[in-house]
Amino acid sequence: MTDPKICGIPFKDFLIRVEEFHGYRSPGILLGGIMIEEALEQLGSTPYLNVVVETIVCLPDAVQLLTPCTIGNGFLQILDWGKFALTAYDRETLSGVRVWLNFEAMADYPLIRNWFERSNANRQKPVFEEISKEILAAASNLLVYRPVHLQRALKNSQRMPTGLCPKCGESYPLDHGPACPACQGNAYYAY
Ligand SMILES: [Zn+2]
């Protein structure tokens, strides 16, 4: 394999960016990068790119690393479904491409399959240098994609009026009810 690229970034540079952003080299980010590359290639020019990922692990970071879509700008949506799949779409036309992993194709790639199934007997993490070779060799063979149309844009563009919570005095969006979420019993902290 000579000089592979992920979304146009030379593999070595990609790995440095992964370490900087994600903290360590992970097979999921690499696979995610290949999925994003496929999705964007199939989608073509997309001035108003949004991405939905269907798992909270790895894929959100791959999207933020490789596209302008982030959690904070609202163009990345994260569903906690535990599915290694994503959809890239244009938020104006709602047309997109969904990409997921081809489980049957994994039969030819034991390291990837073990990683995906989390099934290796001693639950050791795969050695990145080894599994990344399989991922780069397999590349788009591992992927399935289909055009999709979104039922609705997933970015919440409505601006909800805010007010002060009668209990804690902090500002919150009024659609949560008569008190802020924390004062309604959902606080994750205690003073
Ligand atoms: Zn409150």
Gap from first CA to last CA: 56 Å
Global shape: globular
Question: Widest sheet: strand order?
Answer: 4-3-5-6-7
Helix content: 25-40%
Give a short account of the largest sheet. 5 strands, mixed
Tally of helical segments: 6
Count of the domains:
2
CATH fold assignment of the largest domain: 60s Ribosomal Protein L30, Chain: A
Taken in chain order, the helices and strands follow as: EEHHEHEEEHHEEEH
Low-confidence stretches: none
Q: Approximately what portion of the residues adopt beta-strand conformation?
A: 15-25%
SSE-based structural type: alpha+beta
List the ions, cofactors and other small molecules found in this model.
Answer: zinc ion
Identify the CATH class of the largest domain. Answer: Alpha Beta
* Proper CATH architecture of the largest domain: 2-Layer Sandwich
Structure write-up:
The radius of gyration is 20 Å and the shape is globular. Helix 2 packs across helix 3 (59-66). 32% of the residues lie in helices and 20% in strands. It starts with a strand and ends in a 5-residue tail after the last helix. A 5-stranded mixed β-sheet has the order 4-3-5-6-7, with helices on one face. Strands 1-2 form a two-stranded antiparallel ribbon. The chain has 191 residues and is α+β, with helices and mostly antiparallel strands. The structure holds zinc ion (ZN). Residues 165, 167-168, 170, 179-180, 182-183 line the site of zinc ion.
